[in-house]
Give the backbone structure.
Amino acid sequence: MIGIVIPTALTAAMALAPIQEDREQELSNHAGTIYGPTGLISVPTAYSAKVRTADVNMFFGKDNRSAGANFSLIKDIELGGTWVNRNGANDRGFANAKITIVPSNFKQFEVGAGVIDGFDAINRTFYVVGSATLATPDVSADKVGQAVGFKIHAGVGTGLFRERLIGGAELQFGQGFSVIGEYDARNFNGAIRYSHKDYFGVQAGFWNKGVFVGATTKLNF
């Protein structure tokens, strides 16, 4: 049933996307997942790469390593590719795509619909996820405001996500540090992420019962 609903939702999302209003996304502490799309550790979020920006990501875990890039030529449409190296299995390349929708009456809520491994090299996965900003840190130099930001994410996916619920949360401290946690339909994972301005970030934590480190750099074009 989910395998029918999610592709249908993806098609509807692509049809609705052009009517969404312009807005600024706070993406300074966002990175690609091990499977590719912009997100937490392995769980995608609703957010997409900034337009005319390529996010280059690397992930090094106990049994899995990956490298890839996400880019956007059209606002709120993300395309990407990821090369995955797995212990005891052949290396595989993933083709990924995502579209982000912002309901006009919910400025702090976004919906992402996408596909991981579009050509089914390992396990084609469709997903829909909602992301909500519950608190935004005030980083203005001339005043003191909310010190901590908080975002939550929840959705469902097929394939790699086993037709189960997925989700996570982020605590953001200013524009640099964030603490993230997720449930990927198999395990609870967590990490600390640091972004230097808007062009380089690193993260470290635990995923799939092992430790990992990752890095992201952003290229404008």
